[in-house]
C-alpha cells in the first residue's frame, strides 16, 4: 500500500472541467504543503500542459523527436528495460516543472494509439495494472504526497488503467440532467469494475463545477447532487468564473492571478476547501 494520495478525474463526458479541476486541486494541495504530481492521460492535445503554459516548449520537443521517454512509454513492455538503462533520468525526463508548485507528466500524441495498444493485451489484469505498477515502482519512491490523473472523457482502456491505478475517483459535474445521468453511470461502472476485477475503486468526490447559482435550475441540480451523493459530494461547489477560463487560456491557474475577481477568489477558496477534504477522505499526507 502507498501513503501517496492518488486520484483520477473522470466522467464519461467531455467539457465538465476535469482538466481545470485537476490543475486547480493540484495547486491547492501544493499550497497546503504537499508535493504534487499531475499526469495527463486525457488526450494528445496537452490541455493540462496548456493550463500551466508549458505545452509550447514540450510540443517543440515532440516535434523534434526528443520527447522520449514520455507518458505512453510507461505502458510498454520495454519500460522496465528503459528505466534500468537510464536510471533516475528515465523518470526525470518524463516530468516537467510548471512554475505553480506542481510537477507534470504531459500528454503525448502516442496517447491516440494507446487505447488500441492496451486492447491487444489479452489478460485484463496485466492490461490495466501497468500504470499502477509504474506509479508503485517509479513514482512513489520520489516522495510525492499526491498524484492526480486527468483521464479521457470517455470509457476506454486508458481510463480503466487510470481508475485501476488511482483507486479513487473525482467526478466533476455541471448542473444538468445529462451530467446527473453520467454520474449515476459512473457509479455503476465502478461497481462493475470492482466485481469483474476484484479491485477496489471508489467514487471519492463529486465536484459540482461551473455552478451559476443565479439560476434556479442550477440550485435545484446542486441540491439533487447533494441528496444523491451525501458521502461523496464536495464540501464546496466551484462557482462559474470567466476569470478562471481566461486564466487557463492564458496558461495559468486562477491561483496565479494577481487581481482575481470576486468569483475567481470564491473559486480558489472552494478548491482549497475541497483539496483539504480530499486529504481527509483519502487518508494521505
Structure description:
This protein is 49% helix and 12% strand. It has 285 residues and is of the alpha/beta class. Strands 3-4-2-5-1-6-7 form a seven-stranded mixed β-sheet, with helices on both faces. 46% of the residues are buried. The mean pLDDT is 93.
Topology (SSEs and partners):
Layout: E1 5-9, H1 18-31, E2 36-40, H2 47-51, H3 55-63, H4 79-86, H5 88-92, E3 96-97, E4 102-105, H6 111-119, H7 124-139, E5 146-150, H8 157-166, E6 168-173, H9 177-197, E7 202-208, H10 216-228, H11 242-249, H12 262-282
Parallel strand pairs: 1-5, 1-6, 2-4, 2-5, 6-7
Antiparallel strand pairs: 3-4
Task: Report, as a whole number of angstroms, the end-to-end distance.
Answer: 14 Å
- H/E topology pattern: EHEHHHHEEHHEHEHEHHH
Strand count, sense and barrel status of the largest sheet are: 7 strands, mixed
Shape: globular
The amount of helix comes to: 40-55%
Radius of gyration: 18 Å
Number of strands: 7
Provide the residue-averaged pLDDT: 93
Low-confidence stretches: none
Instruction: Give the DSSP E fraction (strand runs of 2 or more residues).
Output: 5-15%
Give the number of helices: 12
> Which structural class best describes the helix and strand composition?
alpha/beta
What is the strand arrangement across the widest sheet?
Answer: 3-4-2-5-1-6-7
